[in-house]
């Protein structure tokens, strides 16, 4: 039994190594599929982030903007990416955009509430102190609000990136590349398990490595949050997720709870992300 | 009666929370555990209902070791009030109060009827029965917390810093309420606080804990203020303990002077003649309602036939009730009066007499032993 | 615009609404797979989450497993199970359960863990036993979070049940698979629109469930000690 399992694992690894790159078919080896996968996911995440930041800022500056935007975001959240891939097909064909547009939207949807709540998290007394010291709105944004928001934004980014990397595989069904194509055409269509396993393992690894990079980035960007994050990891992820926990303090309304929220989420894994990602939809 | 027999709590990391506590809590009295944080007062309290298990010694209720009882059953027979009440957010006020009766299998209707009774007892409006905790103020939540603890009419009530999260005004009213309840119910109350004033106000007996989980002194409030056993208790009790101690002595033992109290129709000259060196005269109406102070110098300056009531009088300041107030109130009235003298009144607010500084001083010295 | 008109015509075709290949039948299959997958997941995940949350044991394992499951590419899991177990409903359900368990498990665990310590202290202090604390305090307080986890799971399950058609069972995915095979774009779009519709309905359903199941004292921003 155990010997069989080892044999099987060895077969999978051998296939992976043998097919790492195929000189005859430069687009179809494991490595090109992996780079395709990375291109599609990172492009989506990046575009989502680039859209979420200014939109989030706008929502914080012009408060009435946020409720309608949040409603739109929540509606979008309910739309499955799989269906969106097919709906995009007539317009974007087999270009990267068929996958990137829905996944970038997904990233935007997950990130936007985190950006807004992150920026709003600054305790009132800290904001007042900054004003009293003569900080203008722009300086306040750069020196006070953004640093506080970074951990929350990164928490959202972690949720979005793990989900995106896993969802890119589905794009193979509409004919796009990535590790999903390895699973679909090399594995399933040929009734051969090794490519499927290689595809799954590499997707998971890619997700974990990306997550680790984001954790590292957060530690570098917010050195003050390190100790705390570890100690209080039991508390839920970014912003409003905590607010929706019945027993937790309400959304950071009072300065006191806002402060707790700043100390609270900081270190969040993609696991707690289920709540992070979800919590905010619920506030609408 | 609750007895701690060498009760100790030692944590695996070596922290001593409570170090061999010997103490007896009398039935029907309020016993306050007071001390700085880390002194083991809360741990000691939680040993009583087995929320903390002692690692040495024992805690006995009416002679029986609490460890012989099933923890859940034991706890249902002991009321428990904690900081910020700890009300269940998903239950209405009424159902929060009915928690223990329901656990005891009372049936919903009876439990709710009991909850209604208790709401009245702790001063909550019946209209609040169907509200949820988050709709109440901090003080109201704490009242619900007390009601919930009393629901099954337990003989013992454990209160762990119950009033520390509310503002001073609300705290004072909750303390009054507790004193009133205790007069009515005579529970065996164990009350934990870090506030010595609260301890003195509420306690029949006070146990002062020192860091490291040791009992520093166990005494009546009067004795505690009068004779702190060591430097730690003295500093914990506070620098103005002498003044606070005056609360325990009635003002009625003060000697009051009536010879410096004059009706408003008395002539200034006549008043000045009968004052015998006293610098201030208190002017009252015909019904003995105080009007204000006239100084001796002032009386000498005006024509001798001027009526006292027509003079420009200094305000009489605070008064103290001779029959019900303490020496502390009398001292306070004297300090706040422009004349430096306290005006004693009866229950109807009529002036009984004036306490001079000398007399007050004598009285204060006599209680200081 | 032509696509929209064709799509409209596709939906308007009376044949679309009858028989085994009609929208009602396909929708029924889709809902059936999704419901079955969700219920199975809830049966596994909720008790497990309640247990780990209540005892505080296995919390790290739970979260790590859930993290891992989240990163798994669904089609990989589905196709691998189909290769091993053959075509049919069982592999589809396995894939759906693998997808739906993590969010329900994590939210249940976190929901129970998130109950304020002082509430738990009060509950034990009043003489509740372990199971009473779980059922009378922790579960009701965790319901909002559990429902959120269920909703995430449900939306993902509805979306993923589409893939079931690739391994030979029915559901709305049939329109997409058949449309792809026949180069019938309209049919593919019709199927996608229906999936989107069902997903949005699912979200609405959970909004309704929340009204029904969450104690009024816990709704939006309702917090003890505010």
Automatic annotation (TrEMBL), chain B:
Location of the ABC transporter domain: 2-237
Keyword Transport: yes
Record's keyword terms, sorted: ATP-binding, Nucleotide-binding, Transport
Enzyme Commission identifier(s): 7.6.2.9
Enzyme class: translocase
PROSITE patterns: ABC_TRANSPORTER_1 (PS00211), ABC_TRANSPORTER_2 (PS50893)
MF GO annotations: ABC-type quaternary ammonium compound transporting activity; ATP binding; ATP hydrolysis activity
Taxonomic superkingdom: Bacteria
InterPro entries linked to this entry: AAA+_ATPase, ABC_transporter-like_ATP-bd, ABC_transporter-like_CS, CBS_dom_sf, P-loop_NTPase
SUPFAM superfamilies: CBS-domain pair, P-loop containing nucleoside triphosphate hydrolases
Keyword Transcription: no
Gene3D superfamilies assigned to the protein according to its UniProt record, in alphabetical order: P-loop containing nucleotide triphosphate hydrolases
Similarity annotation: Belongs to the ABC transporter superfamily.
UniProt protein name: ABC-type quaternary amine transporter
Organism name: Nocardiopsis sinuspersici
TrEMBL record, chain C:
InterPro entries linked: ABC_transp_perm/SBD, MetI-like, MetI-like_sf
One Pfam family cited in the UniProt record for this chain: BPD_transp_1
Matches recorded under Gene3D superfamilies: MetI-like
Domain called ABC transmembrane type-1: residue spans: 27-206
SUPFAM superfamilies reported for this sequence: MetI-like
Keyword field: Membrane, Transmembrane, Transmembrane helix, Transport
PROSITE patterns: ABC_TM1 (PS50928)
GO biological process, one term: transmembrane transport
Chief location: membrane
Keyword Membrane attached: yes
Membrane topology (UniProt): Multi-pass membrane protein
A GO CC term assigned to this protein in UniProt: plasma membrane
Transmembrane region(s): 31-51, 72-101, 157-177, 189-209
Name this protein carries in UniProt: ABC transporter permease
UniProt organism field: Nocardiopsis sinuspersici
Lineage of source species: Bacteria, Bacillati, Actinomycetota, Actinomycetes, Streptosporangiales
């Amino acid at each position: 039994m155990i010997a069989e399992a080892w044999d099987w694992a060895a077969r999978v690894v051998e296939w992976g190594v043998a097919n790492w790159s195929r000189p005859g078919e430069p687009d179809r080896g494991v490595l090109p599929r992996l780079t395709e996968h990375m291109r599609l996911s990172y492009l989506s995440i990046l575009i989502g982030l680039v859209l979420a930041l200014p939109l989030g800022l706008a929502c914080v500056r012009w408060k009435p903007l946020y409720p309608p935007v949040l409603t739109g975001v929540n509606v979008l959240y309910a739309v499955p990416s799989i269906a969106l891939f097919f709906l995009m097909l007539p317009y974007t064909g087999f270009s990267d955009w068929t996958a990137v547009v829905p996944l970038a939207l997904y990233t935007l949807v997950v990130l936007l509430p985190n950006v807004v709540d992150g920026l709003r998290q600054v305790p009132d007394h800290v904001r007042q102190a900054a004003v009293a010291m003569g900080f203008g709105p722009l300086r306040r944004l750069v020196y006070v609000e953004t640093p506080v928001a970074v951990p929350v934004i990164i928490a959202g980014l972690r949720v979005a990136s793990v989900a995106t990397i896993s969802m890119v595989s589905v794009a193979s069904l509409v004919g796009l590349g990535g590790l999903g194509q390895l699973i679909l055409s090399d594995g399933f269509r040929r009734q051969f398990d090794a490519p499927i396993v290689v595809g799954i393992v590499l997707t998971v690894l890619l997700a974990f490595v990306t997550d680790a990079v984001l954790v590292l980035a957060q530690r570098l960007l917010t050195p003050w949050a390190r100790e705390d994050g570890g100690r209080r990891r039991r508390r839920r992820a970014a912003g409003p997720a905590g607010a929706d926990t019945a027993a937790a303090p309400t959304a950071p309304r009072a300065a006191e709870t806002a402060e707790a929220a700043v100390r609270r989420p900081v270190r969040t894994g993609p696991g707690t992300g289920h709540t992070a990602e979800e919590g905010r939809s619920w506030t609408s | 009666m609750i007895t701690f027999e060498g009760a100790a709590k030692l944590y695996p990391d070596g922290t001593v929370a409570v170090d061999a506590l010997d103490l007896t809590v009398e039935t029907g009295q309020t016993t306050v555990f007071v001390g700085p944080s880390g002194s083991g007062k809360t741990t000691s309290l939680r040993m009583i209902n087995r929320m903390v298990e002692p690692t040495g010694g024992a805690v006995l209720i009416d002679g029986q070791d609490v460890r012989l009882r099933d923890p859940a059953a034991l706890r249902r027979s002991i009321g428990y009030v904690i900081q910020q009440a700890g009300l269940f957010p998903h239950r209405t006020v009424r159902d929060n109060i009915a928690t223990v009766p329901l656990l005891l299998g009372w049936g919903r209707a009876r439990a709710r009827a009991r909850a209604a009774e208790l709401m009245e007892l702790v001063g909550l409006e019946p209209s609040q029965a169907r509200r949820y905790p988050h709709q109440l103020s901090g003080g109201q939540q704490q009242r619900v917390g007390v009601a919930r603890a009393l629901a099954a009419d337990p003989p013992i009530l454990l209160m762990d810093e119950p009033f520390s999260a509310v503002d001073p005004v609300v705290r004072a009213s909750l303390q009054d309420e507790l004193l009133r309840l205790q007069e009515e119910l005579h529970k065996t109350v164990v009350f934990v606080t870090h506030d010595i004033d609260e301890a003195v106000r509420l306690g029949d007996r006070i146990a002062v804990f020192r860091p490291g989980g040791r009992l520093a002194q166990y005494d009546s409030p009067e004795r505690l203020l009068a004779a702190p056993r060591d430097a730690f208790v003295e500093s914990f009790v506070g620098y103005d303990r002498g003044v606070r101690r005056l609360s325990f002595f009635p003002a009625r033992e003060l000697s009051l002077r009536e010879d410096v109290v004059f009706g408003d129709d008395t002539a200034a000259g006549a008043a000045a003649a009968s004052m015998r060196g006293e610098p201030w005269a208190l002017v009252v109406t015909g019904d003995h309602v105080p009007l204000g102070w006239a100084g001796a110098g002032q009386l000498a300056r005006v024509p001798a036939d001027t009526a006292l009531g027509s003079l420009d009088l200094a305000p009489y300041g605070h008064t103290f009730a001779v029959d019900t107030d303490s020496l502390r109130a009398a001292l306070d009235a004297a300090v706040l009066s422009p004349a430096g003298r306290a005006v004693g009144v009866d229950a109807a607010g009529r002036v009984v007499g004036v306490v001079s500084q000398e007399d007050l001083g004598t009285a204060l010295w006599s209680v200081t032993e | 615009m032509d696509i929209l008109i064709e799509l409209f015509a596709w939906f308007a075709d009376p044949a679309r609404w009858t028989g085994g290949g009609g929208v009602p039948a396909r929708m029924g299959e889709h809902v059936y797979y999704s419901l079955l997958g969700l219920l199975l997941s809830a049966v596994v995940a909720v008790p497990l989450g309640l247990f780990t949350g209540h005892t505080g044991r296995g919390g790290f394992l739970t979260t790590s497993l859930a993290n891992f499951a989240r990163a798994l590419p669904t089609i990989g899991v589905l196709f691998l199970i189909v290769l091993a177990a053959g075509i049919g409903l069982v592999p589809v359900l396995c894939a759906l359960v693998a997808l739906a368990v993590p969010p329900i498990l994590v939210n249940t665990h976190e929901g129970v863990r998130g109950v304020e310590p002082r509430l738990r202290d009060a509950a034990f202090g009043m003489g509740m036993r372990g199971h009473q604390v779980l059922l009378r305090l922790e579960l009701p307080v965790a319901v909002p979070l559990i429902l959120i986890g269920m909703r995430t799971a449900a939306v993902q399950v509805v979306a993923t049940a589409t893939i079931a058609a690739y391994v030979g069972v029915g559901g709305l995915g049939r329109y997409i698979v058949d449309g792809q095979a026949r180069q019938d774009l309209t049919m593919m779009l019709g199927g996608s629109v229906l999936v989107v519709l069902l997903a949005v309905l699912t979200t609405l359903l959970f909004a309704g469930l929340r009204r029904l199941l969450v104690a009024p004292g816990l709704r939006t921003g309702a917090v003890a000690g505010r």
